[in-house]
Give the backbone structure.
Amino acid sequence: MAVDFTFHGQSLDNSLVASISSLLDSIHVPNLLWGNYLLTIYGISTIVDGAAFVVPDNSIDVSYSVLLNAGFLRCTKSTESTHLHIKEEIAILIYRNSDVLPDLPYLLPPARLGYGQGRLEPQFFSIRIPTALTYCKALIYLRCRDRGRTTYGMYWLVMLTYIVEYADGTDIFHEEDLSEVYRPSCYALQTGEPRDMYSISDGLRC
């Protein structure tokens, strides 16, 4: 049975994200935080226009239904992706596991004072997140996979740029920890030649 949660216009914050995660948990849907909101947990300040969750492929429909029944708003403008809204400009997206890579580890980054919001407080530990290293690898793969799809390809590139520019060299991410097949993509971004990352796409395995 789903937890007793109703969306009634709350602002997007850790509490709301935790409520969504707990709601999915309560119907036995494993879920992983993704997207812009995840960057803030890494301590990267960015514009947050929503939160995204990765769920098993066969749980997309039930995840959408339980969030809709909880009061989140149906999108009236697009049917391209599975998502609902907190308000018109703030969305809750649901990704299929196979669309953004399977079997990602659930690990928490440490706090970083002065950078975004940093590590989650204990009351929000129900929110599962990938390590910055794992997220970086996933973004490199997705950027190569979707390079011919302007909207998706550019979105992954923006997310990857945030990781490389603001997290590299910190206590949550070091470029040298990437395997050799991924490292050239970070170097290409740092040198201003993001197109160079496509040369490694055939060898990518996440």
The chain has six helices and five strands. The longest helix spans residues 150-167.
